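Figure S4 source data
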Amino acid sequence: MNLRRTDLNLLTVFDAVMREASVTRAAEKLGMSQPAVSNAISRLRVLLKDELFIRTAHGVRPTVKALHYAGQIQRILDQVTLMLSETEAFDAARSERTFNLVLGDYGEMVVLPALMQYLDEIQAKITINVLSPRQFMRADALRKGTVDFILGYEPMAASDIKNELVIEESLVSLARIGHPIVKESLTLDQYVSVPHVVIDWPNSRGSMVDQQLRSLSLQRQHRMRVHSFFDMPRVVATTNMVCTVPSQMAHQFAVSHNLVSFPVPIPDTKQSFYLIWHSSFEGDPGLIWLKNVISGMLENAFPPESSLP
């Protein structure tokens, strides 16, 4: 193939059609006419020797070969964008950029309100898209550029994925006021004997608490498993179950659901949080700015332990 005779703008068209799953919407996004986009796809079909996109009742769907090319083309376009952006400083107050984040329950509760408040204060036109962890907390979402940052509980083990430990937060337990066993604290034996509502962790190791209990040859009662931390306080407020969550979440749940907090009777029980991104974006001024903002918010998020109810 003679690269000098190849129109590299075709890659931008491919990426837009891939993202939008529609020739019409891709044309609108690119500021092109629909026939011009269709013509570009026809040229790509000849160039790549594949149908690439098949018409459906609702738009188009990619072929297997198109899916194979999608990640490579996205990385090429990201690298070109990054190369051009490195010559410019990121001005958050003037930028109209969209950032796609996977934050999970913790990030949505602790980071997101503070981030949006900060964007309001600087009158930024930045858009934040918060994506589902169960669908997008994956390395391939970072590789494809679908996600800019993930806030995760553990690092991702891949050579092209970057992980930064941003905070280690103490875990705190919660119970309803008037709980028959919980007073100001629980012994370790009491802690494992009371019924717990826990997160249904996607990994086989379970939570940090369960890992530490196993090291002591102990196991707590998993009376109820839920998919979200936000389900926990409602259950705890109306039952004799207890839950264990990061301290900042415990502070907010205790206030919003009239719960009492008590320390986890296991020494140094902390939850780590990692910011995770793809290595190809390391020089992106916008992502560097956002990483610094989120890291700073996490470092300043915690109330004094004495302020917990």
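Figure S5 source data
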Amino acid sequence: MDNRAPTSVRLASAHLPRLSAEYVRLSFGTWKPSGASPVGGEPEDDQQRRSAVRADGAATAARRRLPVKFRVERDVLAEAVAWAARSLPARPPVPVLAGLLLTAQDGSLALSGFDYEVSARVELEADVEEAGTVLVSGRLLNDISRNLPNRPVEISTDGMRVSVVCGSSRFTLPTLPVDEYPALPQMPTATGTVPGDVFASAVSQAAVAAGRDDTLPVLTGVRVEINGSGITLAATDRYRFAVRELLWKPEQDDINAVALVPAKTLQDIAKSLGSGDHVSIALSTGGAGEGLIGFEGAGRRTTTRLLEGEFPKFRSIFPTEFSAVAAVQTQPFLEALKRVSLVAERNTPVRLNFEQGVLTLEAGSGDDAQASERVEADLEGDDISIAFNPGYLEEGLKAIDAAYAQLSFTTPTKPALLTGKPAVDAEPDEAYQYLIMPVRLSG
């Protein structure tokens, strides 16, 4: 047996035969990708957009420009502006959507942003001298607020302009027409709550497998399935599939609902709200609010439109019987994978050879650069050689967040199941499962 040190890395001196690789996608039976657009579709032109979001003219008229004057701490303002402005479009379809709506009243300040897909609203304490509403450039206010000196900030209106004063710093900004700004979507009725840290971790684990191909919008989302006291998050790009199950506190014990949420939006929401004690999830299960999901926590509230289309049925593709099961310490595995991948050009797989007591990672072939490294592994079952996209495997190892990674195999050409566990002899944590397709090698 090769007695090289388990952590050694070497460039292979012998020329291995050049291998060709074929990436294999997951098969979902009769499921076919659809080019579905977000629920409700996009209005055909800006005029339709305006009429769609300003159907309630009375609500819009009630927010016409009023004198505003308030004071707030710099750090509090900067954090709130950064969060509310994060989803403002760089090239808005209508100019007012580049604005941030500031509403001051009764000792509080609310900042709101909206891009027809995602809305954001945050409330904070403020010393309000004159209550009112004003609309200013969100990008400009964000740049200004995070660069102000550490002093209280006073914001006031003077006709068609807004004054921002902090210490000896003074800025004057033009306003945007408040009466043209669309009303934010109403939050659906609260469905239940989940601890903020659990929510953030679960979304991160599931969304890592979401697709990034906008021509297949259904696969760019995370499926949120609510069944009583349990939530299942699922995402796939057809080359891997991540499923995360978690518990929460529903408002109704018998609730059942499903939503397909844009993955990038859900990740942003989870990161920003996950620091709070709890996140409230508001999902419409029918009626006027259908096609919308809302999240609230730590004084922040956000909604997003849902994706439509049929998400692939996935439970049947997860194997339950295996010919080999390997357990490897996650961190040494991950570090070895990163090193060996240095010689793997784009779309070049990394080969994993599992034998009793050892895992050998290899990359490169033919006249190309080559590398290999060995790490300790506990193997039950038959020896197996299998190849994976190194990026997909690395993301899965990072996502399991466990001391040991367990890889369960059927054959070298069938999906492998990656789970985490706290110790080599412990049971795997099946609350998170990461299914990854191998790469077929020939030659």
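The first helix runs from residue 46 to 53. The first strand starts at residue 9 and ends at 10.
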